[in-house]
Amino acid sequence: MTKIEFLEKLRTALANDLTGAVIQENVDYYAGYIRSETEAGRNEEEVIEELGDPWVIAQTIIDTSVPAGANAPYEAEGQAYGQAYGQETTGASGRRPAGAGFLKGLLVLLGVIGVLFIIITVVGGIVSLVAPVLIPVLVVIFIVRTVRGGR
Length: 151
Known about the structure:
- The protein is mainly alpha-helical.
- The protein has five helices and no strands.
- About 15% of the residues have low confidence.
């Protein structure tokens, strides 16, 4: 597929769900990306193949876009779409979107819980392997110490 074909398919896929300005912004982004990669010495077809299906890209853009007129209070006009293609995630005031700190904290908490779960699972597995041998040995040691008088 050529660059022109890729961009036209992307434009067509975005046409029913987004405004003309948003469509053009995304098409321009991908055109610039392909151009920069080919200027860096990569083959155009290779770059387009790496990007994948323009219909899938379009669906991702549509899913992550804020509907027209529904901009969040922290965003200036037109900045809601920056996240879809890797731009800053701060609004016009320079603040992060509401809830970003909470989500980051939640993600860290889930990561810690996941690591603890893995550690407990590994320790439990080791104990379950060693217990059939270790428990009888400890019982024998206890009996021998008791019989000898606790020495």
